[in-house]
């Protein structure tokens, strides 16, 4: 497959208040965000012209920046409007949306209180995080070598770029061994999440997911919990130990990019766990896919 570089595409990117040609959306090499990871971002999806939970994403972007000590100079309403503007300008109805805010290049040093804060929003067609075939069969995961840090060690509630250093490394290491992604444990050795998605298990018809006390409490995660409860499925948020995984019948990942992706296999040397792409996973996939497209949920399906 021919790679189309991200910096060499047609169209416009919203940068600091206006739309500019895609190829001109550049920053200087001495940018604080690049050197010291003073950068926060979002990942959103637009379905049939509607950005799913846009305002929640804009709020999280502002909050992510506050957590790591800088202020985005736009309100939630302004970010919402700018996002809609760039989606319309790109004439896309189904696309991925990437807002990013960072400290600029006025000062370069660990402390840079006078640096200005920038915001850019780019959109492009990104059909699937995992290929549709992999997604239908369920993905294969391995265990990441890195662990999610404690909340007093890193700003774990922020969608801060710096936290993705260990995600990129873990996902690339997994892919190099033929896996789609890696499951990350946390600093206590408990199940946390994948490198860019949250995780759910079906334990005897109940949906269990780790308590998000040191990783992102995903918007898709919360959406799936609501959808499951509406179906009368018991949802349990709790600390999940890796040795319990063998008792789960199904496992799936949730995230804006990953949507709901079933897991077929999890290799945790010396053990390999296998899961079926079962009814509960398929029901959640169907409900989610209808909700994001504003279609009515089917009333007749059952998780049994
Ligand atoms: N965890 C991480 C590390 C992520 O990057 C993402 C994707 N934003 C998620 C979880 C899922 O979050 P959301 O459902 O809000 O996209």
Keywords for this entry:
304 residues, alpha+beta, D-amino Acid Aminotransferase, Chain A, domain 1, D-amino Acid Aminotransferase, Chain A, domain 2, 7 helices, binds 4'-deoxy-4'-aminopyridoxal-5'-phosphate
Q: Shape, please?
A: globular
- Which range does the strand content fall in? 25-35%
The H-and-E topology, N to C, reads as EEHEEEHHEEHEHEEEEHEEEEH
CATH architecture of the largest domain: Alpha-Beta Barrel
Can you summarize the main beta sheet?
9 strands, mixed
How would you portray this structure in words?
The chain folds into 2 domains: 113 residues, Aminotransferase class 4, branched-chain amino acid transferase, N-terminal domain (D-amino Acid Aminotransferase, Chain A, domain 1, 2-Layer Sandwich); 161 residues, D-amino Acid Aminotransferase, subunit A, domain 2 (D-amino Acid Aminotransferase, Chain A, domain 2, Alpha-Beta Barrel). Helices cover 25% and strands 27% of the residues. It is built from 7 helices and 16 strands. The protein binds 4'-deoxy-4'-aminopyridoxal-5'-phosphate. 4'-deoxy-4'-aminopyridoxal-5'-phosphate binds next to helix 6 and strand 14.
